[in-house]
Write a structure and sequence with these properties.
Layout (H helix, E strand, L loop, with lengths): L2 H12 L2 E4 L4 E4 L3 H13 L6 H9 L1 H12 L4 H14 L3 H4 L8 H20 L3 H15 L8 H19 L15 H12 L1 H10 L7 H11 L5 H5 L7 H29 L11 E7 L5 E4 L38 H17 L1 H13 L8 H17 L13 H20 L4 H26 L4 H16 L1 H12 L8 H24 L3 E11 L3 E3 L9 H18 L23 H13 L3 H14 L13 H13 L10 E3 L13 E13 L2 H5 L5 H11 L7 H17 L9 H11 L8 H18 L5 H4 L6 H9 L3 H5 L1 H4 L4 H17 L5 H8 L7 H10 L21 H14 L5 H8 L6 H10 L12 H14 L6 H11 L19 H5 L8 H10 L4 H21 L7 E3 L4 H7 L2 H9 L2 E2 L9 E3 L5 H15 L23 H9 L5 E3 L19 E2 L2 E2 L5 H17 L4 E3 L22 E3 L3 H15 L10 E3 L2 H4 L1
Antiparallel strand pairs: 1-2, 3-4, 5-8, 6-7, 9-11, 10-11, 12-17, 13-14, 15-16
Helix pairs in contact: 2-5, 3-7, 4-5, 5-9, 8-9, 8-10, 9-12, 11-15, 12-17, 16-17, 17-19, 18-19, 19-20, 19-22, 21-22, 22-29, 23-26, 24-25, 26-50, 28-29, 29-31, 30-31, 36-37, 39-40, 45-48, 46-49
Subcellular location: Nucleus
Pfam family, one: HTH_TIMELESS
Protein name: Timeless N-terminal domain-containing protein
Length: 1266
């Protein structure tokens, strides 16, 4: 501190006044009020070192000036208020100044200890009855005023006085005091002063008054600090005369103290008795102990210390870091002076009788409403424990503590314990503080159990029923039952103190005692958590139908209503619709897609007013590019825009859809398809106490008990009894005596034998004698047990030690259920019988039901079948799927009959599958139909929509067909497949659709195309050789295993040439042609060879690759064009709406060229031109379906609008393009004859040999077309 500041503080303190020793009165200065305010300002400007606070403490201004001022001038209101503020500031605990964290830095620790020393001196100064009398007088006058008219200033004075009481009681007793029990300490003197001044009565009044709820949290703190040194049981049993139990306890303590003194005297006598003078100590040679050399060990000390001879005398012990030292926590309880104990007993009795239930209710209410400060729950838990224990010892009455005796109280305490333990594991720096809070919560939990135990022994039947109802819930719910064993297993001496461990041992004892008694009287059904086993199902994105079958009909019904709504300009159309979410994180410019989807949904839900209002509102928000039409649209154009939105496949508002893909031929019931879910589900089961007790037979529990038993001399008699009782349950009840064969436990027994004369250690000696007898009896059978004492043992190890090593493994359940030769033969016979009789029931289920040993599980049978190589591929034998790929003549005849009966159905393949006696996969049925020439195309037996498309294409195949390049894409679009949700082509499928991608129909490319592609990459010799080797390896693996590969095989590029080739576009085209698919998403990094490729196809590909490497490719002239999986760019609904609003839209009709291919026509491409600009379609599948639907409806004369399907190949340069240009054409026809004429003209144009010179007509309206 600077000299200037020191002088200023000294001058300020001197200006307060002076004390006259003759008159024993303190005289204040004229400026005392301002001087006290200056001291408050100084403290407010204090820094982190608290220099001013330490200086004021050193000057003892509180003892010499402030308290005398308070005694002499307390009637001056202004001066009293300022003095009270200064006293509260100066007496603030040091730990609170450092935010409840004791500083570890040397200088800061010195400052902390200095301020703590000042606080202890302040506490001695406050042991004055006059000071508390003044404060209680002022406090009582304010409390007499009604709370409603008291005012804020008076409330502050009440709060400051209560905080001052809290600060004084918070401070511990001075270290140098060291007063014995039953003597008045400084804390007792302060309590006596509080009692004499009437402050305790005022505190009791505030606690019992519901109008003073605002001060309840201060009161609970004061109570905890006021009674923290007291034992509730001792306080409750305090009488004017000592009871007999108290006399016996004090005599036992005195006897133990005398025993320790006698032992020390005997050790001192033994040390020097019989020993010669140190000058004649002598030198000895110890023959039984070898030195570090080859010579004998030489001993230079007296013979009485021979037992302590070892080589570790001069060794330095390893220093343990501070953060790894065990927690040292001294007991805070002591016996106060007899008069103080009587005062406190009277106070506690009045508090329980008149205030406890209401007080605890409102304190907990503050926690629930977050009105309390941090860590105030600890004070609540302490109060619960102390006063419930006091009630048990002082004429136990449940009604006095009924607020905290309930299942809710158990739940609250357990919740706090779990929270505290979580903070111990997370916050390592403050783990000691959290450990103390957990200890307080454990004491509260123990007291709840003891109160229940006392209620069981009550004479009142209603009380016993209430206790039984609470115990039923506590013992039923698994979380309550597992709490104690969890605390035992997680004990760590670095985090928890010995006091905590002793209380934990007492808690587990009372819990097990109550649980055992409850199980003996009742058939206990409890709740337990079990992990739910569910079958893992492949999840894919929800397929969205290309166009719903009745969508056109819905539009035909909705169109008149929309037309009327547009023509009438109805006022029902809402005006205030906001098409965007201003609070969303998505930019407004990107929300127009959701707006379009909402319009689509409104139209489908027949909410035409909302759809039209949202369309017009969106047009105002996003006017650019006429995405929602122009502002001057005619009603007809607006109707066309709504029609296009309604018919478009754009889905609903953005959501994450998922659907379980059900594929009968792929679903397996093997163990690999099952997984454990993380969520546990409760179920009820019968409870056996012995089974629950086996949970305690854990080496961690034994270690905890051994650590608690090490302090056998200083533990209470009851604590030692609880520890020995738990070990007795494990050793005697569970017959696992081998678990306590441990050297550290034997050392504790050795210490107990030295105290065998004391009666409190009698049970420990008895238990130790039994364990040691079993140990020495076992040494005759197992000499290795001596080494086993150095290690902690599990129950399995203990069993092996007693019964022989390996005995536990022979007795395990898995070993007991091993399959012998007879059972294996029975399993083989049952499997062969199932195959011969072709039983339709699942093979595993059938075998399990017919086994002689009905204890076998389905999993065990399936595992054994696989280990015996009887069931290598389980899916071929599961129920509902054909177990063989062989079709008998009878099966083929059934298939023919089923086909004839079902070929006209809406879904023929489903009907055929249901009519077959032997259920088979649908893909196998379709393959067989193709093989026996019942159908020419897979689409003949698929669902109605695809069949309609196929029939329309076949009607046009007489006039036109597409080129061979388009053939593969047509097969892909028309083949039966899982309907996919339309995605933009710039996005790859998600990981959920990988399985779906594998099963997409294959795209077969002709040999001529492959040759053309190989010519482009023939210079990549190394890459072709690598590709050839990869395909050859797959062929060899199939020949070795005789099985078809189901999974796609990754094509891993390791060398530089293979990596370079993978990035080449021509090589990528070759890979696609060879049916090697590109990575599905960002989670895949390799191209993959389709697993469903047949061996013959692979052989053909390998031969072509060999010819390419040998420059022996056949000469072909046919151009090659690889179909692209997606178009390069797509036109969405916004573009189509924008095209409708344009008056300059020209519609181009292009003839379709013939092709020599006889397969199903390619997916037609729809083209539209605007200002000679080509725009591509959204999706081939969507456009195909929509075009066919509109074309068919135009043929039926239902719709005046149709879309003509064309392929623009008129340009001479189109042969060199990789992707066909696809555009929309919207034609308007009013007469069916015009449509027929146009189709006839298109057909005649198609027959023309001039493929490169096609005619084009531009139609701007229906009138022009006519």
């Amino acid at each position: 501190m600077s000299h200037l500041l020191s002088a200023e503080l000294s001058a300020t303190c001197n200006a307060l006044g002076y004390y006259d020793s003759k008159s024993q009165k303190y005289y204040a200065d004229t400026n005392t009020l301002e001087t006290v305010k200056d001291l408050i300002r100084y403290l407010r400007r204090d820094d982190e070192t608290y220099e001013i606070r330490r200086s004021l403490g050193d000057s003892q201004v509180l003892q010499t000036d402030l308290l005398p001022l308070l005694k002499g001038y307390w009637e001056q209101t202004n001066l009293f208020d300022v003095l009270l503020r200064l006293l509260v500031n100066l007496t603030s605990p040091a730990l609170m100044l450092w935010h409840e964290v004791v500083p570890t830095e040397k200088t800061a620790r010195y400052y902390y200890l200095k301020i703590d020393e000042h606080q202890k001196k302040y506490k001695q100064a406050f042991a004055d009855e006059k000071i508390w009398a003044i404060l209680s007088t002022r406090l009582s006058k304010i409390l007499e005023i009604d709370f409603a008219i008291r005012g804020e200033e008076n409330n502050l004075i009440i709060e400051r006085i209560l905080i001052l009481v809290r600060n004084i009681l918070y401070t511990a007793n001075p270290d140098e005091e060291q007063r014995p029990d039953s003597d008045a300490s400084v804390h007792d003197q302060v309590l006596w002063s509080l009692h004499q001044s009437g402050m305790l009565d005022i505190i009791l009044f505030i606690a019992s008054s519901t109008s003073e709820q605002a001060y309840y949290m201060h009161i609970v703190e004061i109570l905890s600090f006021m009674l923290r040194e007291q034992s509730a049981t001792s306080l409750a049993t305090t009488e004017l005369q000592r009871s007999q139990s108290e006399k016996m306890r004090e005599e036992a303590e005195l006897l133990l103290m005398r025993h320790h003194e006698n032992n020390k005297k005997q050790e001192k006598i033994r040390k020097f008795a019989g020993a010669r003078h140190s000058r004649f100590g002598g030198t000895y040679v110890i023959k039984s102990l070898q030195s570090i050399s080859e010579k004998n060990y030489v001993y230079h000390k007296p013979l009485n210390n021979l037992d302590s001879v070892h080589f570790d005398v001069e060794k330095k012990k390893t220093r343990t870091p501070k953060n790894r030292l065990p927690v040292q926590e001294a007991p805070t309880e002591r016996r106060s002076a007899f008069g103080v104990k009587l005062i406190l007993k009277e106070f506690c009795t009045e508090f329980i009788n008149g205030a406890y239930n209401t007080f605890m209710y409102y304190v907990k209410f503050n926690f629930e409403r977050s009105k309390a400060q941090a860590h105030d729950e600890s004070y609540y838990l302490w109060a619960m424990r102390f006063f419930m224990e006091f009630n048990r010892g002082n004429n136990f009455q449940v009604k006095l503590v009924s607020e905290t005796v309930s299942v809710k109280a158990f739940h609250f305490v357990q919740q706090q314990m779990e929270t505290y333990y979580d903070y111990i594991c997370v916050n390592k720096k403050e783990c000691r503080s959290w450990s103390k809070r957990l200890h307080i919560a454990l004491l509260a939990y123990r007291e709840l159990l003891l109160t229940l135990y006392a209620m069981d022994r009550s004479l009142d039947e209603a009380v016993r029923k209430s206790a039984k109802a609470i115990k039923t819930t506590i013992f039923y719910v698994v979380e309550y039952r597992e709490l104690i064993i969890t605390l035992l297993l997680t004990f760590d001496e670095i985090l928890f103190s010995r006091l905590y461990l002793n209380d934990l041992m007492e808690t587990q004892h009372i819990f097990l005692k109550m649980l055992q008694a409850y199980c003996g009287k009742n058939e206990l059904v409890v709740q337990k958590k079990k992990k739910r086993r569910t079958k893992k199902k492949r999840v894919a994105e929800e397929p969205v139908s290309e166009v719903e079958p009745n969508l056109e009909e819905l539009w035909n019904e909705a169109a008149p209503q929309l037309s009327a709504l547009l023509s009438e300009n109805s006022a029902a159309i809402p005006d205030g619709i906001v098409p965007f979410d201003a609070a969303s994180d998505t930019p407004i410019s990107e929300q127009k897609t959701d707006a379009m989807k909402k319009i689509h949904q409104h139209l489908k839900d027949a909410e035409f007013e909302n759809a039209l209002g949202l369309l017009r509102a969106s047009r105002e928000v996003w006017p650019e590019n006429d995405c929602f039409g122009s502002s001057n649209m005619a009603p007809e154009e607006e109707l066309m825009a709504l029609q296009d939105i309604f018919l478009a496949n754009i889905g609903g508002p953005t959501q994450k859809h998922s659907q379980v893909v059900k594929d009968d031929e792929e679903e397996e019931y093997s163990d690999d398809e099952e997984e454990m879910e993380g969520m546990l589900e409760p179920e009820e089961s019968n409870f056996k106490f012995d089974d629950f007790l086996k949970r305690f037979a854990n080496q961690r529990v034994i270690q905890t008990c051994a650590y608690a038993l090490q302090n056998i001399e200083w533990n209470s008699v009851y604590t030692n009894y609880c520890i020995i009782k738990l070990l007795h349950r494990i050793v005697w009840d569970l017959k696992m005596v081998g678990m306590v064969f441990q050297a550290s436990i034997f050392r504790t027994f050795q210490k107990a034998y030295t105290l065998k004369d004391l009666p409190q250690f009698k049970e420990i000696i008895t238990f130790a004698t039994y364990v040691l007898r079993q140990f020495f009896k076992l040494t005759e059978k197992n000499p290795k047990v001596f080494m086993e004492t150095l290690f902690w043992k599990s129950s399995r190890d203990a069993f092996d030690i007693e019964e022989g090593y390996g005995s536990y493994h022979e007795q395990t359940k898995a070993e007991a259920q091993a399959w012998n030769e007879t059972q294996e033969m029975e399993l083989t016979q049952l499997f062969n019988e199932h195959q011969e009789k072709e039983i339709r029931e699942d093979v595993v289920d059938w075998i399990v039901n017919n086994l002689v040993d009905n204890t076998r599980s389905r999993r065990a049978v399936l595992k054994k079948l696989k280990s015996m190589s009887l069931l290598s591929n389980y899916k071929k034998h599961k129920a509902g799927v054909s177990r063989s790929n062989v079709w008998t003549e009878e099966d083929e005849q059934q298939l023919r009959e089923a086909y004839e009966m079902s070929k006209e159905d809406a879904n023929p393949i489903e009907s055929i599958s249901s009519r077959l006696l032997t259920q088979r996969a649908k893909t196998k049925i379709v393959a067989k139909l193709l093989e026996i020439n019942l159908i020419q195309n897979k689409n003949e037996v698929v669902k109605g929509k695809n069949r309609l498309r196929m029939s329309k294409n076949e009607d046009r195949s007489n006039h036109s067909s597409v080129s061979e390049d388009s053939d593969s894409s047509a097969d892909e679009s028309t083949a039966p497949k899982i309907i996919k949700k339309r995605q933009p082509t710039t996005q790859r499928p998600s990981t959920k659709t990988k399985q779906k991608i594998k099963r997409n129909p294959q795209v077969h490319v002709s040999k001529e195309k492959l040759v053309e592609l190989l010519r482009k990459v023939v210079h990549m010799t190394d890459a072709l050789e690598w590709l050839h080797e990869s395909l050859s390896d797959i062929l060899e693996d199939r020949k070795d295993s005789n099985e078809e590969v189901e999974e796609d095989i990754p094509l891993v590029a390791i060398m530089d040439y293979s990596t370079t080739a993978i990035e080449d576009k021509d090589f990528q085209n070759l890979l696609r042609a060879l049916q090697i698919r590109e990575p599905a998403d960002e989670q895949e990094s390799h191209w993959r060879i389709l697993g469903n490729l047949s061996s013959s196809v692979l052989e053909e590909y390998c031969q072509l690759l060999s010819d390419a490497m040998a420059n022996n490719l056949p000469d072909v002239n046919a151009p090659t064009e690889i179909p692209s999986a997606h178009s390069d760019s797509e036109e969405d609904v916004f573009d189509r709406v924008r095209k409708i609003t344009s008056n300059n839209t020209a519609i181009e009709v292009v003839d379709v060229l013939p092709s020599t291919s006889t397969s199903a026509p390619e997916d037609p491409v729809i083209s539209e031109t605007k200002d000679s600009q080509n725009v591509q379609s959204d999706s081939d599948d969507d456009v195909f379906d929509r075009a066919n639907r509109i074309r068919s409806e135009s043929d039926d004369g239902r719709s005046p609008k149709r879309i003509s399907i064309c392929d623009d190949e008129g340009d001479e340069h189109s042969q060199h393009e990789k992707v066909n240009r696809k555009r929309y054409i919207i034609e308007s026809d009013e007469d069916e004859e015009k449509n027929e004429n146009k189709r006839e003209r298109n057909a005649s144009d198609t027959d023309s040999p001039l493929k490169s010179k096609k005619r084009s007509r531009f139609i701007s309206s229906d009138e022009d077309s006519s």
